[in-house]
Write a structure and sequence with these properties.
two-stranded antiparallel sheet; 176 residues; alpha+beta; single chain; four-stranded antiparallel sheet
Length: 176
Amino acid sequence: MKQSTQAQAKDTDQATDDATKASSQRANHAILAALIAVFAGVGVVGFAPAEPAQDDFGEVVGAGTLDDVIRVLCPRTISKPFNPRTRTPGRSIARVDFRFSFRTDPVRKARVLQRVEKNWDRIESRVLSVLMEQQPHEIQDSALLESRLAHAIDETVFADGIAHVDEIMFMKILVQ
């Protein structure tokens, strides 16, 4: 009788250990799936509520979903001749012509275009200051220059997140 009680206790302990291991494996898998989702951006998007944002005029504009995002090409071209940063000032001259596109939702498209037009002088000024900070070899690296210009335009006009510059399309890059 004593042996059967010990065998039953041993079986009960074994079953408890198996259940604990299975639940900890499920928990580990759930944690791993959550981490992958967060780092891949799925978790952030899946749990973030869409809230309406206010634009410059104080009107509430409906927030778009990821499916509603459109790409808009800015209708104007930025064309800047400038002197890049060198050890001896005035020894180099450069010219950069480009257009940019941005992503926004269709509801905000007109407001974003209006904001770009309203702040065009600020955009050109910021672009010129970024270009003048570059050395000639940095200007010829179009990927580096594209990221710096996109970041500068985003900070200047779209700091509130109403849109995002997603591409700079260079038409001309000359460095002498």
